[in-house]
Design a protein that fits this description.
Layout (H helix, E strand, L loop, with lengths): L2 E4 L13 E4 L2 E7 L14 H18 L7 E8 L5 H11 L6 E6 L9 E8 L1
Parallel strand pairs: 4-5
Antiparallel strand pairs: 1-2, 2-3, 3-6, 4-6
Length: about 120
């Protein structure tokens, strides 16, 4: 199967990874943290603000791959404190309000740059 790397300037520059990889009819978006696509710098806002920026960046990556948020089938949410899950969920629901994808949300220690949320997704074309 052909493996296509996905890139858009509307999302943060990737480090030593791709923003997403498209294989067949699936798109695997790398874990996104709250990084400003213009400056590449982390945005240390509230959990809600971080989640909004992450999912907006994810949306841009999916669109560059010929997909959309409506075609997301699996989401992995990594959060530094499960006490903030309700705040994250409030924003998450604005992106996945109908027919939500499968999901896991887990507390982790030590997210990149000391941020509070990281999200990766798998979507169809």
């Amino acid at each position: 199967m052909k493996r296509e790397l996905i890139y858009t300037e509307k999302a943060p520059e990737p480090g030593n990874y791709s923003q997403a990889v498209k294989v067949g009819d699936l798109i695997f978006v790398s874990g996104q943290t709250a990084d400003d696509p213009e400056t590449g710098k982390p945005v240390y806002g509230t959990v809600a603000e971080q989640t909004e920026l992450i999912l907006t960046n994810t949306k841009h990556i999916l669109e560059a791959a010929g997909s959309s948020m409506e075609k997301v089938v699996k989401v992995n949410v990594y959060i530094s404190n499960m006490e903030d899950k309700k705040e994250m969920d409030a924003v998450y629901k604005t992106f996945f309000n109908e027919n939500p994808p499968a999901r896991i949300a887990m507390a982790v220690k030590g997210l990149d740059a000391g941020l509070d949320v990281e999200i990766d997704v798998i979507a169809t074309v």
